[in-house]
Amino acid sequence: MKKIKRLKYIWIVYIIISIMMIIPYVILNNSKPTAKVKQPHKIMVYRNIKDIPYVKAKAFLLKEINSKDILYSKELHTKMPPASLTKVMTAVLAIESNRLNEIVTMPYEATKVEQFKFGAKEGDKFLMKDLLVATLVSSSNDAATAIAIHLAGSVEKFAVMMNKKAKELGMKNTNFTNPCGFDIGENVTTVYDLALLSEYAITLPHFNDIVNYRKVVIYDISKTKHYNLKTHNKLLEYYPYTIGIKTGYTAKAGPCLIARAKHNNKDILLIILHSDRGKRWEISKEYFDNILKVQN
Fold it and tell me: Residue 10 falls within a domain, yes or no?
């Protein structure tokens, strides 16, 4: 009797151990692979050092790249239209899509936007990376619109993507309505938010190379059409330490500029919204020379 009970006990223990060995195998082979979790972007929080109300622009910011200190500013958090500085966000989304080698067919909507345009016709086909070049170098609104529609299906859906990314970057006073910077609805931002965007954009592949082009030629897929593009950033032409990044202008936004210059181991970011007419280049040179200790 004792022997039978002992055999029953051994049999029960064997069954339990077998089940315990099988369960992990079943779980492993029936579970879905865990997706790699994207780490959230670490938002930089800036400290303002000095206001300069006398600068010839409605809003202004100057700081060293990767520093928390804003050296000079004016109307740091005042919402204003940024004109084509908006295209920096369009470029960020294009680059991060990892679809730059896809073929984009120029949609009708893109060919009907306002100037500046590089001049493609409806149905023309381009690599997205060439449209990115046109967006950043010659500030081509047709290129930016084509990218938006290709990535999101419509300009409106792309604006949703832009605002989602803006939120991720900590751009609390920004709202985008289109990929070009048109004054449609409330397309607004601040010099503070543009600094967050700019410091992020310059960490991405391709971006710094493109914004340094003074002139560039792009081709359609067939190589039968070519387009000569030229930058609107005059600093690239006459200020030797400039390394980008983007200009903008509309009648409402006025002359706008994001500029960057490196010299004497300093890397400086400057942002201007609505400068006095013709003064954004003068303002940039003055403050870059001062911070970079350029001897004239």
Answer: no
Q: How many domains does the chain have?
A: 1
Active-site amino acid positions: 84, 87, 139
Residue 139's SS3 state is: coil
Question: In 3D, which of 9, 68, 60, 22 has the Cα closest to residue 42?
Answer: 68
Element of type H or E holding 104:
strand 103-105
Long-range contacts of 228-233 (CB under 8 A, 24+ apart): 229/118, 229/133, 229/134, 229/137, 229/138, 229/140, 230/137, 230/138, 231/137, 231/138, 232/116, 232/138, 232/139, 233/257, 233/259
Query: CB count, 10 Å around CB of 96?
Result: 11
pLDDT in tens, 80-109: 999 999 999 999 999 999 999 999 999 999
Cα–Cα separations (whole angstroms), residue 269 to 24, 70, 91, 120, 143? 55, 10, 18, 33, 26
- Residue 254's beta-bridge partner residues? 250
Indicate whether 23 belongs to any domain: no
Residue 20 placed within a domain: no
Domain that residue 270 falls in: 47-292
Q: Is residue 99 part of a domain?
A: yes
pLDDT tens readout for residues 177-236 = 999 999 999 999 999 999 999 999 999 999 999 999 999 999 999 999 999 999 999 999
The contacts found for 223-229 with CB under 8 angstroms, 24 or more apart, are 225/124, 227/118, 227/119, 227/120, 227/134, 229/118, 229/133, 229/134, 229/137, 229/138, 229/140
Instruction: Please report, for the domain that includes residue 176, its CATH number.
Output: 3.40.710.10
Angle at 167 (CA atoms; ends 63, 107), nearest 5 degrees: 100
